[in-house]
Records
---
Amino acid sequence: MNTHQTHIETLALLARTLGNAHRLALLEHIAQGERSVERLAELTDLSLANASQHLQHLKRAGFVQTRREGKNVLYRLGTGPIAPLLVALRDYADHQQARIHDLVADSRSHPARLEPISREELLRRMSEESVTLLDVRSEDEFALGHLPGAINIPVEELERRLAELPAKQNIVAYCRSPYCVLSVDAVAALRAHGLAAQRLANGFVDWKAAGLDVETATRVYDPGP
Amino acid sequence: MNTHQTHIETLALLARTLGNAHRLALLEHIAQGERSVERLAELTDLSLANASQHLQHLKRAGFVQTRREGKNVLYRLGTGPIAPLLVALRDYADHQQARIHDLVADSRSHPARLEPISREELLRRMSEESVTLLDVRSEDEFALGHLPGAINIPVEELERRLAELPAKQNIVAYCRSPYCVLSVDAVAALRAHGLAAQRLANGFVDWKAAGLDVETATRVYDPGP
DNA sequence: CCACCATTCAATCAATGTGTTGAGCATTGC
DNA sequence: GCAATGCTCAACACATTGATTGAATGGTGG
C-alpha cells in the first residue's frame, strides 16, 4: 500500500504544481519559446525572486527545463505529454463554464445551441463564399494560434466593437472547444444587432486536431537582446 | 464581491482541487460507482467530516455530483471530460517516472527497453499460441479495467508471487501507458528468474483506445434514473 | 582572477489549506 | 413525536504555501 500512496501522492503533487495561476501563466509564456527569468518575471508581473521560485517549482515537476546562455538562464518547456494535460484541463474548464451557462439559459427558457455548423460545413462555405471568421477568445489565446484570417474580438468587447465586422458577410464565431460557450453568447449578440452569424461546433481545438492551417500572431518568439 | 476570476485562475482552481491525494483517492473510488459518504470515508481512511469536506470541494469543481437515497447521500462522477483529464495527468506522471528511470538505467549502462512488442504483435500471438498476460499495475487500477484474461501482480509484489505464473508459457507484461516503466522492471525480474517475458509497448491506455476488449473486476458505474 | 549581474537561496510573515471536534439538520424507523 | 442515523457546518489548531526582502552564488566577460 505504501507504493500506491506514493503514486497518488505524485499525481497530487503534479496537479498542485499546476494549481497556481502564476505558474500557469509562466508555463504559457514558456510554451511560446525559451525565455529568461527576467523576461518571464516581466511578462507575468512578478518579482524576480518570486518568478524564480515558481519556475523552480515547475522545474521540479518536470514541466520546464533550463539551460544557460551567457549570463541568462533560459527556461523552456519540458519533455513529455504536457500539452495534452493542459488541453484536458482547459477542456474540462470549458465544460464547467458551459454547464453553468446552460443552467442560466434553461432558467430563461433559451432555445438550444443556435444550430452550430461543423468544421466540414465551414470549410465548404469558405471555399464557396466569403465568410468572416470571428475568434471570441482572449487575446493571448488568439496569439497562440487561430483559424486563418480570423478576427479576434474577445466576447466581452464584442458589443462595442461591432463596427470592426463587415456588415454584409456571414459571420462564423468560435472559441476553444466544443464545451466553450462564449461563441453562443457572441452569436446571440450578433444576431441581436441584425448580423448573420453562426457558431462553429467544435471550436479551435478540433480545427487544430484535424491538422488544418493555424495562424499564429506575428511575434512568436522574441528572445530579446 | 470579487467573483471575477480570470480564465487562468479558474484553471488553477481546478488543478488545485486535484492537487490533494485524498481528493484524488476519493475521485477514483467514485469513478468506480456511486458511493455514500460513509463508505468513501472508510475506503480512503478519512474521518467522516473530513471526507465530507473534500467531497464538497470536488463537488464545487464539478468533479462529482450528489443525490440523496434514503438516509445516504450518494456521490457519483460529474459530467464532462473528467476521465481525459485524469488520464492526461497519469500519462504525464508516467512519463516523469520513465524519465527518472532512464537516468538510473543510463548510469548503470543498461541495455535499451527490452524490445517491447506492439499491440498487433500481441494480438497475433494470442491467436496463435497461449500467452500469459501480466498486469503489473496496482490492484485498484487493475479493477478499473484490464486486458482480457490478464493476471494482476503489482510490480513490487512480483518477486514473491512468481509461483502464480505458469512457467511454461510466454509472459507479456504491461502497465498503463507508453511512458509507464513498471513493465520494464517486471520483464527484467522475470527474465532474471528464467522466465520468457516481454513487455507490451504502449500499455493499457493504448489497448483501450484501440477499442479492444476490456475486462473490469467490479461493477461499472450505473447512472440510474 | 576580478567585478559584475542574473539568478537562486534563506528568512520571514501573511494567506490558505487541512484535519479535528462537537454542534446542527435532515430523513428514516419506531 | 422521538431517537437513531448519516451527513454537513462552524470553529479552532496546525501545516503548507506564497510573497517580500536582502544576502549569497556562480558563471561571464573583461
Note: Chain B touches chain A at residues 6-21, 23-25, 28, 61-62, 79-82, 84-85, 87-93, 95-97, 99, 138, 140, 154, 156, 179 (CB under 8 Å).
---
Amino acid sequence: MKKVTIQDIAKELNISFSTVARALNDHPAISEATKKLVREAAQKLNYRQNKLASSLRSGHSYTIGIMVPSLGVSFFSSVVHGIEKIMNENGYSILLYQSNESYESEKKGIETFLNSRVAGIIASVAKETTQYEHFFEIQKRNIPLLFFDRVAEGLQVPAVTIDDYKGGFLATEHLIRQGYKRIVHITAGQTIGIFKERLRGYVDALQLYGLPVDKSLILYGDFSLDFGRQCVQELYQKKVAFDAVFALEDFTAMGVLQQLLDYKVRVPEEVGVIGFANESFGALVTPGLSSIDQQTVPMGEAAAELFLKMLRSEDLYNNLPKHIVLDPHLIVRGSTERLASS
Amino acid sequence: MKKVTIQDIAKELNISFSTVARALNDHPAISEATKKLVREAAQKLNYRQNKLASSLRSGHSYTIGIMVPSLGVSFFSSVVHGIEKIMNENGYSILLYQSNESYESEKKGIETFLNSRVAGIIASVAKETTQYEHFFEIQKRNIPLLFFDRVAEGLQVPAVTIDDYKGGFLATEHLIRQGYKRIVHITAGQTIGIFKERLRGYVDALQLYGLPVDKSLILYGDFSLDFGRQCVQELYQKKVAFDAVFALEDFTAMGVLQQLLDYKVRVPEEVGVIGFANESFGALVTPGLSSIDQQTVPMGEAAAELFLKMLRSEDLYNNLPKHIVLDPHLIVRGSTERLASS
DNA sequence: TTGAAAGCGCTAACAC
DNA sequence: GTGTTAGCGCTTTCAA
C-alpha cells in the first residue's frame, strides 16, 4: 500500500496541498464545499495524517510519558489505568516506560521521553533512585512534570500522593485502640519519602497515646513477602516481645502473617497485623488482612486532571507547584479485629 | 532553554552538520577523533536527538503500539509488563492504549497508532469487538500485527495464546486423580472461545477416565466471587451431590471456597476446589487455591520475541502466521491436595 | 573521511 | 478562500 500524503489528495482534486491540510484540520477559512470534497478524497485514498510530521512542524506532540517502577505491581498498573483513560479522552497518547526500580533504566526512559518530545511526563520514582538530575532536566526544558505516589525530594514538582503520615498514624492508632501495646513497625531504608512518612505517623500515634517509642520495635530493611517472614523470625530469635505488627506494605504484612501462623501464633488474638496498600488479596486471605487503602483510582484521576491543567498553563514557572494529598482509608479486617468495635 | 540541534553542534565545532549527524549515529566512516569531539560538544550543549525528525526522515519510528482491554485487569498488566521489558531492551518505545472493552475506543486507538507510524502493533481484542476492519487495515499497510490471548477470529494473524483446552483437561484430570468423582464445572455463557475450550477439556478428561458427564454438574452463567458463592448455594439447595468444583477462573473459585468454608465443609477432604488463572491471591489464602497458571510472563515474552522476528522479517506476507500456544501449568495447593502425591 | 544538498510530510506566515 | 513558500531537525544520497 503506497503511502498517501496530503499531496496525493491535492493532486486528486487539483487544489493546493495547503488547502487540503487546512480542510483536514477544519480551518475556519475553508469553505464547507472544499472541506467535504477533501474529506471524501481522504477517505477514498485511505489517507492517514502523519503525526511525526505534524508534531515536528508544529512543536506539539500530544504525547505524554508515563514512568512507573513496574506494571507488575497492581498499585501502579491501576493508577496508570486511570491516567491513560483520562489523558486519552483529552486527546493525548501515552508513551509507557517501566524503570523496574532501576535508576539507570529510569534515566534512559526519561531520555527517550525527551527525545520523543513528549508534551509532559508523569512519573513515580524508582526505589534505587537517589539522584534527580534527570528529573531536573525535564524542568529545565520547561516540560510539565508531575509525580505521583513516590516523589523526588528537593525538587519543586507538582505531585499527587496520599497522606502517608496520616496512613501510618491511622494504622497505628487502630492497633492501639484494639489494645495492642508493643507494636512493631517494619519500614524500608529511608531513601523513599513515603516510608519515612509512614514511620513518622507511627511514632506520633504512639506518642499521642502515651506509648513509648521503642527502637528495637522498628525494623529497617526492605519490602517483600520474604522480608516479612524474616522479620518475624528475627524478632523471635532476639526474643523481642511484641503484640502487633504494622508493615510498610501488604506483601510484607502477608509474610508476617504467614510466619506468625506457621509459629502457631493466633492472629489477631495474640498478635495483630496491618499492612498498607489494600492489595486485592487482603480481602481473600484468612484472617483478612487489615490495611490502609491508597485510593488508586482517585489518584490516577487526580494526577491526570492536575496534569492537564499544567499542560494548559502558560507560565509553568510562575505557577507554584501544587501538591494534592489524598486521604488514606483504614480498612479493618480479621487480622486486627479483636475487639467488637475499634 | 533553547532547543539545541545538530546545527548548533556543527557551528560550535566548525564542521558540517551532516558530519555531526553521522558522528552521533556512530557511522563507521567518521574518524574516532571527530566522533569524540562531537560527543563532547553534544554533552556540553545538552543536545537531545529529535526522534520526531529522525523517524520522519528515516521512516523508522522504533515505537510499537500495545492495545489491551484494561490495565486494571492483572492478567493484561502482567503481560504488558513482560512485553514492555523485552521491547525496551531491544530499543523500542511503547505507545499504550486501553480499549476498555469498547469497539469504538479500540478503533480509535488503532488509528492513533497508524497516525503515529508505529513499527508494529500488539493487541488483545476487546470483548465488544466483532468487526475487524481496523485490524485488517493494519495488515493492508504491511505493519506487523500480533494478537495475544484474545484473537480476532478469521484473520490470518500471528498470535500467542495458552491452550485452554489443555488447561481444562489438566484441572479436571488432577481432581480425578485426587479421587474426586462428582466434579462440578462452572463456566460462562459460551460466547467467549477460551471458556468453551476449558469446558471441552473438562468433558474430555471425564470421558477419558471413564466418568459420566452429568449435565446437572455443569453450571452456566457468569464469573465473579459472588457467582461462585451463588453456585454453591444452589447446589446445596437443589441437593446436587458433588465432591469437587472446577471453576472457570480464580475469583469464582474463591467464592466457591469461601461459601464451602462458611458451610463448614472441609476443603480439600470433603470437597476439592480448583480455579484458573493463578491469580496472586491463590498462594496467600488458606487453604491455598489450586489453579491453572496462564503463563503471563512467558506469554509477554513469547509475544515480544515473536514480534521482534516479525519486525525483522523482510516479507511479512510470505511468512505464514505463526500461532504460539503455550502450555498451561497445573498449580497444586491445599484446596485439592488430599492425597500425598497426585 | 567529510561536505553539500535534497527532502521526509506537515504547519503557518504571507500573499493575493 | 486559496495558493506560495519556508522551514521543523533530521537521514541519506552524491561528490569530492
Note: The domain at 6-49 of chain B is CATH 1.10.260.40 (434 Repressor (Amino-terminal Domain)).
---
Amino acid sequence: MIDPKLLRQSADDVAANLARRGFEFDVDEWRAHEEIRKSAQMQTEALRAERNSSARKVGAAKARGEDVAGLLASVKDLGDQLQAAEEQLQKAQFALQSIELGLPNLLLDDVPDGFDESANCEVLKWGTPRTFEFETRDHVDIGAGLGLLDFDAASRISGSRFAVLHGPLARLQRALIQFMLDVHTAEHGYSETYVPYLVQSQALMGTGQLPKFGADLFKTDNETPFYLIPTAEVPVTNLLRDTIVEADVLPLKYVAHTPCFRSEAGSYGKDTRGMIRQHQFEKVELVQLVAATESSDALEALTGHAEVILQRLELPYRKVILCAGDIGFGSSKTYDLEVWLPGQNAYREISSCSNYRDFQSRRMGARWRNPESGKPELLHTLNGSGVAAGRALVAVMENYQQADGSISVPAALQPYMAGQKSIRKN
RNA sequence: GGAGAGGUGGCAGAGUGGUCGAAUGUACCUGACUCGAAAUCAGGAGUACCGUUACCGGUACCGUGGGUUCGAAUCCCACCCUCUCCGCCA
C-alpha cells in the first residue's frame, strides 16, 4: 500500500510514477472519495464527541439523583445522525481502501522504462554456456531417457503441470535444497524457518497477492478458506504482522524451503513442456526485514546471496533489472536471475529478488522502534528466490548432461549425494 | 469430535452498565539521593487516525463481528483462538 499521507499530499506525482508501469490511477475518482471521507470523518467524530459528553452528563445527573428526562430528550436525534454519518464514513473508507489496495508500489528512479521483458536491462553475465560436442537434449528427454522423470504418471494422478521424480533425480532436487539452505544459513546469516503452507486471506493481503490476484491461487472450500502458499514469502514475511520489534533484532533474515502452489491461470499454452511451469514446485526463499535506510543495500546483498548458489553450481546466468512494465505489483525494484538452459537455448528466470520497501509492511503493520525517535516505524521488506529448486534441477540436468544420456553431479552437490558423481541409467 | 475453563496495555493481573484508555504489581524511560551502582523517592510512558500544528483538542481500540442502551471492557447473539480432560491420530 502506498502511504496515504503521500497520496493526499501529491496524488498526481504518485499517478505519474504508476503510469510508468502502464497503470492508470484515476486521481479524480480517488480525490472525490477522499473528500467525502474527510468531511464524514470530521462529522462522525464531532457527533461522537457530543454523544460522549452528553452521556457523561446523564450519568452525572443520575448520580446526583436528578431528573434526566430533559437531557435524554435533547440527545434524541443524535443517534440517528451519528448512524447516518458513520454509514457514510464507512462507505467512503471502503471505497478508498479498495482503490488503495489495488495500487501497485511506487517504482524507484533507477528502474528502467519499458512495457515488457524486452526492455529489461542486463546488468551482468556470469559464466560461459558450455559448448556441446553432441546434440543436446532438454530435461524432459534426459529425464525420460534415465527413466527418472515421469509426466504421464503425474498427469494420471493430478493432471497437467505436475511431475513425478524418481530415485537419484528426486534425491538431486533434495540435494539442491539442502545445499542452498546450508549456504544461506552458514555463510549468509539467514535463519532457517519452517512455516505453514496453508494461510488465510489476511496474510495474502499483507504481502499483496490479495485482493487483486486471487485467481493465481489455490483455495480450499472451508468456511474460512485456506490458500496454498504461492511462495514462502507469504508466511515468512507475515511473521512480523502486527508487531513492533526492537532495533537490535534487525536486520531479520529468514530462509525457508517450501513447496509453492500456483494455479497458473491464464498461462495456457505457455511452457507446457517439462517442469518449467508447474502447479507445485520447490523453492528456497530468502526474506529480509530491515530499517528503511538499509533496504537498498539489502537488495544488492540478497541478490548476491542467490547468485552465489548459481556460481557454486557453476551454472551460467545473467542478472537483469526488470523494467517498469515487467516488474511485480508490490515491488519497487526487482532483479531477476536467469539461468542458461541449453535445452531451450535461452536464459530463463530462476530467481526474482525484490525490494518492497514499506509496501507490504504498511499492509500488515510490521514495524520496528527507532531508538532515535522512540517511535514505531515501518520496516522495509525484501525477498528473493535463493533459488527455485525445480528450475535449478532443470538447469543442472541440461547443463550437466553427457553424450551417453547421463547427468554429472555438480561438485557442490556431491556431498549431498553420498559422493555420487553421476546419474546414469541403472 | 465430546466436556469444561478462559481471552484486558511488554508481562502479570483487577475491573459485571456512568470522568475506565482502563486500578495495582512488574519491566521500561527521566530526574533526585550516590564517587558509581543497588535500594528508595518523584515524575513519565500504549497504538492508530482527524483537526491545529507553539501548545493542544477530538475519535477509535479490553479476541473478532453484530446487537441492546442516552452511555458497553462490563449485558445479549454469532464466530475465532488458547488451555485442561476424554476420544482419535503422525
Note: The first helix of chain A runs from residue 4 to 19.
---
Amino acid sequence: MANINDVSRLAQVSKATVSRVLSGSRNVKEESRLAVMRAVEVLNYKPNVIAQSLSNQSTGCIGVVCASENINQTTGYLHALEKQLRLNQKHLLLRFASDAASVAHSLNEIGNGLCDAVIVIGARFPLPPLPHSAITIDCLQSHTERSIQFDHSFAAETASQYLINQGRRNIALINLHDGDAAEQVSQGYHQALEHHLLPYNRQRVFSGENALQRLLNQNVSFNGLLVPDDAMAQEALRLLPQFGRQVPADVMVFSLDSTLPQGASAVPAIAYPLEKLAQRAIALLTAPLSAVAGTAPVRGTLMTPF
Amino acid sequence: MANINDVSRLAQVSKATVSRVLSGSRNVKEESRLAVMRAVEVLNYKPNVIAQSLSNQSTGCIGVVCASENINQTTGYLHALEKQLRLNQKHLLLRFASDAASVAHSLNEIGNGLCDAVIVIGARFPLPPLPHSAITIDCLQSHTERSIQFDHSFAAETASQYLINQGRRNIALINLHDGDAAEQVSQGYHQALEHHLLPYNRQRVFSGENALQRLLNQNVSFNGLLVPDDAMAQEALRLLPQFGRQVPADVMVFSLDSTLPQGASAVPAIAYPLEKLAQRAIALLTAPLSAVAGTAPVRGTLMTPF
DNA sequence: CTGTTAGCGCCTTCAG
DNA sequence: CTGAAGGCGCTAACAG
C-alpha cells in the first residue's frame, strides 16, 4: 500500500504539499496540485486513517452502547444512527451491555483514544459515571444535559386517550420497573383517566418480573392494555389468546414505544421519529455546548395499524 | 492523559522497558517491573490504542456489514458476533448496506487501515469483489472459501417433514427471490414431498414481491406455509386472519430461518446456532487458511413453540 | 506557494 | 536485562 512518501516522490513535491492537496487547501499551485492528483491516481493512494488519527488526536469513531435487553427496540435506533453517522463521515463502534459494569467496561474503549465519543442507548439500569463526551438516548438516568429523553408522560396520556376513545374504559398498564420514565408513564396514565373521570384501579397496574403474567392471573377486568414496548406487545399478543382474551376484540393492546414504521406494527403505538432522533444525537456530539436549549423531551406520534 | 514518556520518567526507566512490562515480556527485572506498574497505577496510564495500531499495522477492528433489508434477522447475528469479538479483544465497526454499491463503499473503510477484516452478513444481493480478508455469513453469493453458508435444503426438508407430521399435507411455500439458497429451499421442499408421495403443486409456490399477498389471492388450498424468515412469518400471522384463515388451526406457519431463542418464536421454525456461528466466523478470521475442511454448511435445528 | 522539521504515542531492533 | 534510536504515516508550525 502506497504511502504519502511514495506520492510526494512521484509527484516531485514534499509530503506537506501532498497533505495540503488532499486536505483541500487552497494554497497550492495548480501545477503541483495536478501532479499530486495524478500520482495519487497512479499509485491508488489512500491516506492511512490510523496515522491521521494519531496526528489529529481524533478517530472519527463513535462508540454506541446498546442495552442488550430490549435489542429489538435498540436495533431501530442503530440503523438510524448508523445512517446519520455515515453521512457525517463517522464510524460506529458497536457494543452491547446489560448492566452498569459492562457499560463502564465499554467506556474504557474510548478512554484510550479509539472513540471520540459514545452514545448509550436504551439502558434500563443505572449508569456508571459517564465522561463528558458521552450522551444518552432513552436511558433511565436523567443525565440532564447531553441526553435525549422521551416524553413518556405525553405518550402514556395520548395512548390512554386513544384507548378510551376506542371505547376501552378499563385500561390496564404494564409499566417499566422504575425510574423517571416509569414515573412519567404513571403520570400520563393518571391524567388521562382523570380527564375522563375514570376511576384509578391500582390492581390494573403492574411492573417488574412477569408483570403480564401476574396481571392475567389477577382477577381484574380490562379491555385496554398499555405495554412499554413492542417486545411486551408481542408477548401480550401471544399470551392473551391463551387466556381466552381475543385481541383486539376483548383487549386492545397499545405499545408505548415502537420503533416500527407506520403500518408495520400489529397494535396501535407511540412511535418515535428515529431519523430525527439520530440527527439530534449527532448534533449533540458535534455542537459544543449550545443546543442546551433544545433539550426538551422528544414526543412520539400516534400510530395506528392498517 | 498520561503517555508512555510520563510513565518511564516516573518509573525511572526507559520507554522500552515500560513497553516491555506492559506487553508482558518476561525479560524484565522484577524491580523495574514493579516500578513501572506503580507508575502506571499512579498516573492511571492507558496505552493509546491508536498509536499502538499505527505501530502494529493492525487495529483490532472488524468491520461488520449487515444487509439492511432483513434487519431483525441480522440483529441476532450482531449480538452474537459482538460478544465473540469482545471475548477476542476485538472491536465491531458496524455498517448497514442494501446493495453491492454500498457494500463496496463500506469496504473502503478497511482499505485504509481502519479495519483488519470485514464480515458481510445476510446479503440477498450479489456482492462486489471482496478483499481476501473478508468473510461472508448467510450471503447469496457462494463465496466458496471464507464464508459460512446455511444448509437451506436441510431446513426446508425438515420443515416440510414437520408440517406433514402435523397433518398438513398441502404445504405452500414462500421462497426467497433467487440465488443458491432459494434453489436449496426448493430442493428440500421437493424432497420432503416426494418422500411422502405428495404431489407437487406449483401454484403453492411463490417468491419475490408481495409473494404472500399473491398466494392468498390465488385460489389454492393449503394448510401449511413455509416462509423464509421471521419477518415474513410475522406478516403471515397478521395477514392470514384477515383472509379468514386462523393460525395454526387452518394454516400452520413455519419460519425457515429464525434467530429467536427457543420458545420465543410464535411459530415452529428452523433456528441457527448464533453463538457457534459467531465463533466460527471468528475462527475464520483468526485461522490462516486451515479450517477450509470445516466449510460444511451449517444445519439449523427444529424449534417448536411452547 | 513550498519544503523542512518536529511531533502524535508506541513498538522494536540493536547494541551494550 | 536495558536504553538509545529509528520507524509507523500523517499533520502542522515555521521559515523561506
Note: The interface with chain B takes residues 46-51, 53-54, 59, 61, 64, 68, 71-72, 75, 78-79, 82-83, 86, 91-96, 108-109, 111-114, 234, 238, 266 of chain A (CB under 8 Å).
